[in-house]
Give the backbone structure.
Amino acid sequence: MVECLWLLHLAQLLSFNTLYNVIDNIIKWLNKPYYSPIYSTYNIIISVVFGLIVSLFLIVFQPFRIHLLGENLVLFCFGFGAISTFSIILILYFLPKLCKNFFNPETRTVLKQLILLNITVITIGSISYPYNIYIRKSIQQEYIAGYFKILSYSYAIGFFPILFWLYFDELELRRKRRKTSAYINQHNHFNTNIIQEEALFSFTSSQSNNDITIDINKLIYISSEGNYASYFIDEPNGVKEILFRTTLSKIEQDLKDYKNIVRCHKSFIINTRYISEYSGNARGYLIKTTKTDFNIPISRRFSKNDLKDFLTY
């Protein structure tokens, strides 16, 4: 009897650990970086394809009593598909513009994308409700589903396909960028010998007459937020940060003759001689330097060949 109780306790403990690991993995996946451009042909294609899939699914399987529509069935199904396409385009284009900070492509995660897609499904259900009433009344049909039932139909048809697509899309984007990063890391030489001779350069503030002088060969990277730039300098006792009132555009123009100084992102300028390796996720490629643990993002306008060229300067 004691042995049975011990085995039962062990089974419960293992079940709890398994459940904990599953929940932990789900949370980690939801917080993974994700990229979805606001304006792109890709989004339009996905919207149209999804609308067609919804239409064909309804025509073939005829769920939710839609067989009662008789000769109006095909028209109703393609109308529902058109509503799905319109809703996806509407939400993917306009909601990120209204909530710029939350749906910023540079900080987008799987969770934020899932929230966006949930809002899309709710929009599809909300527009489909009056459409369903109109169609069924036009053929004098007594059965008319309520709003929440139409919403549940929308989730039944749309949510799980969207969830599966999101999972595999994030997985494929991450796999591609990690594979490319690993290839570049393996087949290219990273210049870890930092030039010791000084290359002093004076920067002037865009808002005042203040200026600072920095050794360009000791400059690791520059980050920007608003009208301020942070210069990260390689010093004997560690990395030193200097905050200065100026813009990255002005710095980029000032340093245009230094081929190893590259604006790799709208908010970052990197000294390519400090690049130690590349990595990647679903949102894009990242740079790791020899002196910092911070991963510097790379703009998506840079190609695989551009990343290789950074290492030749």
In short: The first strand starts at residue 200 and ends at 204. Residues 147-187 form the longest helix (41 residues). The chain has seven helices and ten strands. The chain has two domains: 31-186, 191-310.
